Amino acid sequence: MTWETHSVTPDRFEDFADVINRTxxxxxxxxxxxxxxxxxxxxxxxxxx
Length: 49
Known about the structure:
By secondary structure, this protein is mostly helical. The protein has helices at residues 13-20, 38-42.
């Protein structure tokens, strides 16, 4: 198995989204999930964070 990495560019954004949020749940906050705990993210409210 070979591993490749690519820069995230506009034409590769969908590939990035597939890796980060493969189920495409709208309430999944991929931009904060590695920096905040779930409770802190919930405190930000729903919708587009």
